[in-house]
Amino acid sequence: MSVDYLRISVTDRCNLRCIYCNPLGDCGFIEPKEILRFEEIERITRLFTECGISKVRLTGGEPLVRKDIVRLVGKLATIPNIDDLSLTTNGVLLEPLAAQLKATGLQRVNISVDSAERESYKQITGFDLLRKVTKGIYKAIEVGLTPVKINSVVIRDVNVSQIVALAGMSIHLPVTVRFIEYCPTGKYTKPTSDYLPNREVRAIIERTYGPLSSVVMGHSHGPALYFKVKDSDGAIGFINGRSSIFCQDCNRLRLTSDGKLMPCLYSAHTYDLKRLIRNRASDRQMRDLLKRIISEKGNYTKLSSFKEEFSMCKVGG
Ligand code: SAM
Known about the structure:
Distance between the termini: 20 Å
Radius of gyration: 19 Å
Number of helices: 11
Largest sheet: 12 strands, mixed
Shape: globular
Structural class: alpha/beta
Oligomer: single chain
Mean pLDDT: 93
Strand content: 15-25%
Bound molecules: S-adenosylmethionine
Number of strands: 12
Order of helices and strands: EHEHEHEHHEHEHEEEEEEHHHH
């Protein structure tokens, strides 16, 4: 599998307090001076594109709370050889920003929504903001930040009742609703026993909508498996991150907001790119390292390097 995908966390701050991700809000905030500046993100991204990266996703924390995020998108959009520039958001701030993001070069968005019902959305995220998120979804479709993907994490005893409604969004809207298996990340989030395998999610969907048929998605370069309810506008995806292992197909690297490059979500091993660029490493030195990181990525897999605790909010999912 060629490594061509870089996920960049632009902040560790988030405007939601999802019970499975960042329930306390404070995940040990990174000091502002340690957060990568726009020109540093731009330089690292450009160097990575010179080493084979062609897909870039901005994430967080919540990327839309980063001041001037539209300006960063504009800078990244001018880098040659990026053929897919996307962003993952909770959608709360999306409606007013969607048109500007599209105009400056963002191609598409993934929007995280774990409930289609106001009260349970509030229970999961801590905030009564589902209406804003829904407006963000419609706006993203309207301005062409497409294909829009909806990301949903299902937690036992929390939002199982929402599975049918979430999957149902794919019937009448041109969106792909993806169910992401819950990954326990530590003592402050939900316990492992709250994990619900996607085969159970699929069974619940099929009991209501009938058998799902497998589809191939043009924009899919990740681990999701895609299906359709008969005659639907959109699609349904399953990301079985816990019940299966897809390390051999993993094409992604992750850059944290303080400049640590992670070759594997589950590995404690990181490369401190910020320290190098702030110590004036040349483009050539950086490229040599990035090429080595890419070639050695296969050494770090879920099985070889599982770490018990980490903050999804810091890493960016
Ligand atoms: N704030 C943005 C958002 O809500 O999409 C971006 C950051 S969030 C960490 C990125 C993705 O990670 C979201 O789709 C979220 O549902 C997912 N995520 C967070 N914690 C998770 C966990 N413990 N297991 C599985 N997915 C998780």
